[in-house]
Amino acid sequence: MEFINPLPIRLKEARTSSNISQKELGIRIGLDPSSASGRMNHYEKGRHTPDLQTLKRIAEELDVPLNYFFCESDEMAKCVEMFYRISEDNKKSVLEELRKKL
């Protein structure tokens, strides 16, 4: 079975759900305005992979956890995103409930 890099898919999902253009996102993370759209397009097409520091800036700008970009399934990506958004107290409760189910 061929491995499909989830990063381009997750990046596009997060960006489009934030209603931000490729160019705008690129500029917000500090890319040169003249190349921002092209660079982001290359990341979303999987032609190039951003370095970790750039990916961290993208995650912060799109308000998703860094590990969201590496989730291979839609279900795991949704879980990671939801877990990221809940309070610290609720995170503890969720983890305890999950432990009970193992």
UniProtKB/TrEMBL annotation:
Task: Check the record and name the Gene3D superfamilies matching this protein.
Answer: lambda repressor-like DNA-binding domains (1.10.260.40)
Q: Which UniProt keywords apply?
A: DNA-binding
Q: Which residues form the HTH cro/C1-type domain?
A: 11-69
InterPro entries linked: Cro/C1-type_HTH, Lambda_DNA-bd_dom_sf, TransReg_Diox_bact_type
The highest taxon in the source lineage is Bacteria
What's the protein name? Helix-turn-helix transcriptional regulator
Taxonomic source organism = Pseudoalteromonas lipolytica
